[in-house]
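Can't paste images in this forum, so I'm doing it all in text. The chain is below; anyone willing to post the predicted structure tokens underneath?
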Amino acid sequence: MIKIGQIRNRYLFLMDAATLSAAPLWAYFVRFEGFDWGPLDLRTALLFVVFSVPVKLIVLQAVGLYRRLWRHAGVAELEQILLATTLSSVSVAVLGAVVLPTLGITPLRVPLSVLFIDACLTVALVSLPRLLVRLLGRRVQWRRLEDAHRVLIVGAGTAGEMIVKELLGHP
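Text version of the structure:
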């Protein structure tokens, strides 16, 4: 069993690879209200997954999502998630709507509704595990503070105030 303190970016990468592989298929499922897609749409969907997932993972890597300590994430990391998912969604939209059908790799253009649903799912599937790590990491930190012993810091001045503020999580 992996504890929150042991969740590393390699696990997030593997989780992203798995969930982002399923996202376009979920988007097709929602778009067509089931699995009755037809052979051309099925072929397009599978080829879109094969080409879009590596693009998404490369963009997420390039933006730096796998170089963060998500237990200590803040607003800057949230902005980074939004930037990474926006860039990957735009890249994949161009891929599915223009590049793959123009090159004749897919028999059909990926429907715009599928691209939109896939973009929304990408934002959710990338951000939720990281925010969960952040929230659960914060919970563990509070438990440690509850078990902590009181200490009197004498003569520390401003440095002592900074330590207390850091431990209590005050700005």
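The chain has a mean pLDDT of 84. The chain is about 75% helix and 0% strand.
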